[in-house]
């Protein structure tokens, strides 16, 4: 396969002044006519195009004969401005890859990012070619949508006009039997915008939360970033078959239906929070992505890192900033630190790829957002605001690079960001070591790093009584080793280092269990308070795994103190009560030079939960009391429910699931239904509840995904349960959500996936090979389960390597899966 390199970038030969397209939709034979007005650019023109049947080609109205090759069309064109017209035929009904124009549940829809537009028509399918589009759709479908503003319509046709020049990856078209949940929004510039969420008939009562999230996102982007919406209509469409979460097409966002549709009865609090975040994320792309886009796909983090950062800020403002930060770091460590530690590690801005779809990663997205958080911390909030204003002013309408982005900050602040730029170009999670000394009223913190980056390390000091004696200060670590002095202290302080997780690093700070228990009890920084408890829990778990120790009383007491403190935010208490995931323990052990044993980790984590349940025995009754008040999706209630469900899980270890069964039977919302069912499954008492759940929700695709996931996640023998479930009539493996619900759960069940008989590895490989033939993108994404191979013992490594080899030898393997398996096989 061919490698694409950042170093080889060259601008496109021609400008595109305007694009006019006509779609005559039919499932087996859709006709697409495309009229492109090119500016002058020499006589050689190369267009991208894949799987297109070329019917006609005209230059300035004169027929030209041309023969496409496998990836496009090379033409000799006039050495001046000209109009190229093509007519092609495509078959959306047979498009199972879900890229380009395809069908989902009887409707037509598109997904063009990153390179799907070339499956629709011949075009310079690259983000730095931007043009205004006019689209005509002819179809018997009642609702016909494309980007921009509606311009005309009649029976069987509609026309759309998008005045904002855009790259082809933002093109979208939808045609279907849809109904709208509608509202309006007036922008700060006085523009009246029609808002519609289009769904299948019957789903319209499930859109209220998404609509509310959209309006709050629009207002927030005006208030916080000064950015207003720029068309007369904003459409969102929910589709059941979708490779990703959602897509920010200009004026016509297309969403995986699970990130739109929600009722209290069908969606958990986490689902509600995710819907709010993804609606915001796609909306925010209108400025960070659409108005200012990427020059090439190596710059993907330019739009994704920034837009994730913005959606995280939004969720923090809508909910609890402290809780949001803890949740974001949990995700970062679980997904991005893992990625960075294995064979798939790459810089936030990669410099080479075979298949760009493989680079929509935790590193580009989540670490990309962390890098912006660091930048903001280093320059300060006010300068960040000025830099963003300058970014929008200077680059509106352009396709940009990370260099452009950093130059804006340099120009706005006068700061040299040469060293900072390494965060974009170097892979791997830096290690920072902290050492302390105390002498004559002076506390010295010495920080060292294994690289040469600029690392903002936020630090605060507490006195021995737990009072903060030095508020948070951002230390800038720029050298290999640096000392920072704090003078005039009455007593040796306790340092709270890397507050708010001020940089995405592995912090090594030799400190006693007592000191961490002290920080868990007293730290004024909520993130570090939580993280002290977490690092203590990891240490206890490691000792249980490695030495067979019992869980320490110190940890149990410190945790109980927080969990039973009614004065603390229930969401925070729930997060503190959550035990580290088995995969996280495996990574931590591996980093410490210990080969993780999945069975021992599983047993130790269970023993830890049992001990915790014993320790909290007297308090659990109160903690599982119903959450008062009418149901609401807000952060307060969600936190209370999270704490209740955590406690219910512990109580089930003591009562065999009796209380969980009562909660399950009485539940009037999905958070508690799923929470109670999980507790029952863990207690080995979930058979009846699982059946009841399946009977109740068998007609609801989104809820049934949970039914599949839960039984695999909580299975003792996850491969066996998975093997049985793929025979279930509702296992529709071509639906990405269903495939992920099953195989995502298999790889998330750490002990099950890594069973020493190799059955987990084998089953996943079998199905990746099968899925690859239909949907390479999702198959490649799911193959990442193998990226932790090098952590484990020789037997497991050999079995995983053999499965990767088997994948690589599969006939007709896609470029997507071949690149992923090849990188992991080494
Ligand atoms: N650009 C899309 C996003 O919003 C890709 N799924 O992240
Ligand atoms: Zn995005």
Q: Please identify which CATH superfamily of the largest domain we are dealing with.
A: tricorn interacting facor f3 domain
Coarse structural class: alpha+beta
CATH topology of the largest domain: Immunoglobulin-like
Q: Roughly how many Å is the radius of gyration?
A: 27 Å
How many helical stretches? 27
Specify the CATH architecture of the largest domain.
Answer: Sandwich
Tell me what you see in this structure.
Residues 209-422 form the Peptidase M1 membrane alanine aminopeptidase domain. The protein contains 27 helices and 30 strands. The protein folds into five domains: 1-177, tricorn interacting facor f3 domain (Immunoglobulin-like, Sandwich), CATH 2.60.40.1730; 186-191 and 200-291, 2-Layer Sandwich (Zincin-like); 297-425, Neutral Protease Domain 2 (Neutral Protease, domain 2), CATH 1.10.390.10; 431-503, Immunoglobulin-like; 698-826, Peptidase M1, alanyl aminopeptidase, C-terminal domain (Zincin-like fold, Alpha Horseshoe), CATH 1.25.50.10. The longest helix has 22 residues, at 526-547. A hairpin with a 2-residue loop joins strand 5 and strand 6. The chain is α+β, with helices and mostly antiparallel strands and 826 residues long. The structure holds diaminopropanoic acid and zinc ion. Diaminopropanoic acid (DPP) binds next to strand 19 and helix 2.
